[in-house]
Design goal:
The chain is of the alpha+beta class. The chain has helices at 11-22, 64-81, 110-113, 118-135, 148-170, 181-192; strands at residues 4-8, 29-35, 49-55, 85-92, 95-102, 142-145, 174-175, 197-202, 209-214. It folds into three domains: 4-55, no CATH class; 64-146, GMP Synthetase, Chain A, domain 3 (2-Layer Sandwich); 151-214, R3H-like domain (Ribosomal Protein S8, Chain: A, domain 1, 2-Layer Sandwich), CATH 3.30.1370.50. The strands form three sheets. The protein has a three-stranded antiparallel beta sheet with strand order 1-3-2, with helices on one face.
Length: 216
């Protein structure tokens, strides 16, 4: 399970930075305060806060009970919407997906994706909320439609690595397009595999972006 260590002027800022990189909320995280901030005397001996944060539940992992509830919820939802789709569990690269694929008109699946995946994001949150209501536990399952997220993941990894290599060779920061927390986490993970560079998120949702820069 991935663990992120971050430092900042305050504990709250350090936690926020780590949560952002992991793409999770504070309720979904285990937080360890490694070092409290200290002001020092006349600026001498001052130090920032350091925290370690890791997800309580790994991305895309859920219990059999949670998966059963999620599958049932989605099957009922697509039936209510009049969309003919197969709803199945699928594991890819260690991530547990619930895949929706067309069993009727393929064009109808676009309704479930929406512009830039916005409807799909809402569908995923509805499904997670349905599971949480019945189990009182938050799950990190990933809902996908016609492999939209998997294709997007591949594109983001390629884009992040390409931008990271440019930063490493030129030293100039690269700012990517606005992304949701799930996508920003994919980019952070990809950048972390390239030596000599680092990534941070800047701005406010829904226009929050990943910026890639030389390691400090």
């Amino acid at each position: 399970m991935r663990e992120v260590e971050r430092s900042a002027a305050s504990v709250e800022e350090a936690i926020e930075a780590a949560l952002e990189e992991l793409g999770i909320s504070e309720q979904e995280a285990d937080v360890q305060i490694v070092q409290e901030p200290q002001k020092g005397v006349l600026g001498i001996g001052s130090r920032g806060a350091v925290v370690k944060v890791r997800p309580k539940i790994a991305m895309g992992q859920s219990t059999p009970e949670q998966m059963g509830i999620a599958l049932g919820f989605l099957e009922g939802l697509v039936e209510h919407l009049g969309v003919e789709a197969d709803v199945v569990e699928h594991v890819v690269d260690g991530v547990q997906y619930i895949d929706l694929t067309a069993s009727g008109d393929p064009d109808a699946m676009a309704i479930l994706i929406g512009r830039h995946g916005q409807t799909l994001d809402a569908l995923q949150e509805l499904t997670r909320a349905a599971v949480q209501r019945k189990t009182a536990e938050r799950c990190r399952l990933v809902v996908d439609v016609e492999d939209y997220r998997k294709r997007r993941r591949t594109q983001l990894v390629e884009r992040a690595r390409e931008a990271a290599e440019k930063v490493r060779s030129s030293g100039e920061r690269q700012t990517l397009e606005p992304m949701n927390p799930f996508e920003r986490k994919i980019v952070h993970d990809a950048v972390a595999e390239v030596g000599g560079v680092e990534s941070v998120s800047e701005g406010e949702d829904p226009k929050r972006r990943v910026v890639i820069q030389k390691s400090r």
